[in-house]
Amino acid sequence: MLAQIAIDYPDHVAAIEMHASSTNDPYYLLEARNRWMNYYPGPPFYYPTLYVDGTDAGWPYTLWRPFVENRMNQPSPMAVTMWGDYDQGSLNGTIYAQFKNDSPQAITGRVYFVITEDSLFFTGSNGDAWHNHVARDYLPDEVGEEITVAASDSATLSRPFTIGATWVEDMCEIVTWIQNEGTQETYQGGKVNLLDLTSIDEEVNSDLASRAIKPVPNPCVDGTQFTFSLPVGSIYAIDLYDISGRQVRSLRGAASQNTEAVKWNLKDDNGVEVSTGVYFYRFMSSEIQTAGKLVVR
């Protein structure tokens, strides 16, 4: 039996296919079954089944498209930004997601992370042979984490992850969303391709390379400097996070010359020197959006 939930966000819908009915299914995942039962707690069963914000989209499946499109046209109070790193050698990485509340009141919801894989072949009992966005692992599990984001504020969460040795990397995505557990409304969600996380600081295009951020030195002891190219007057932001995903420093400004140099003295926003360890930076401007890793010694 194949169950799906839809996570809606502007311009996209991320559907997670959960193989949850039989351990004979090679893609059966107990975490997926536990999560799926929140939507569909008992018989009678029919499949495939689509739930959008906890609401059964009905049958036949021709009803699904207008159901989803109607939900996508509703404005969201939140925005999600994702970044991270992934090492193909060890199959390990870390995913980060920032949830920004653009509404005038606080929002409480439960955040979930899941790794999905596309183009899996297995002929199920309903005759369906090809499966996409199949849930492969919840990070760290299907229980999720409840957070409250104050009005006009944001919260950043991180999750370490490991990819299965048999999984096809370029078919994997990491999906996240924040959901009201009472109404099951999904406030906002996002997704990122796994292999996009391997090229965060590897610019192969010569034009992009000329504009790339270059924190030097890295590793650093007394401080580091971000060097980048932007049109004069362009607004930029460099946010720095520790390994837990907590934002420690925000560097913001407007480019005053074609080549800009911004120094970080290894102090947080309160003027306290940060500890040694691994830090992640995220650079945002209208021209460049990228992220990378720094080591403080």
Tell me about this structure:
Strand 8 and strand 9 form a beta hairpin. 7% of the residues lie in helices and 46% in strands. The chain has two domains: 2-198, Immunoglobulin-like; 200-296, Sandwich (Immunoglobulin-like). With 297 residues, the protein is mainly β. The chain is globular and about 60 Å long. The longest helix is centred in the first third of the chain and has 9 residues, at 64-72.
SSE order and pairing:
Blueprint: E1 2-9, E2 12-19, H1 30-36, E3 49-52, E4 55-56, H2 64-72, E5 78-87, E6 92-101, E7 107-117, E8 120-121, E9 130-131, E10 134-138, E11 145-149, E12 154-162, E13 172-179, E14 186-193, H3 206-211, E15 224-229, E16 235-241, E17 247-254, E18 259-264, E19 277-285, E20 289-296
Parallel strand pairs: 1-3
Antiparallel strand pairs: 1-2, 3-4, 5-6, 6-12, 7-10, 7-11, 7-13, 8-9, 13-14, 15-18, 16-17, 16-19, 19-20
Question: Can you give me a brief rundown of this structure?
Answer:
The protein contains three helices and 20 strands. It is mainly beta.
Residue share in β-strands: over 45%
Individual helix count = 3
Number of extended strands = 20
CATH architecture of the largest domain: Sandwich
Contiguous runs where pLDDT drops below 50 for at least 5 residues: 1-13, 200-211
H-E string: EEHEEHEEEEEEEEEEHEEEEEE
Which features does this protein show?
7% helix, 297 residues, four-stranded mixed sheet, disordered N terminus, five-stranded antiparallel sheet, Immunoglobulin-like, mainly beta, 2 domains, 20 strands, globular, 3 helices
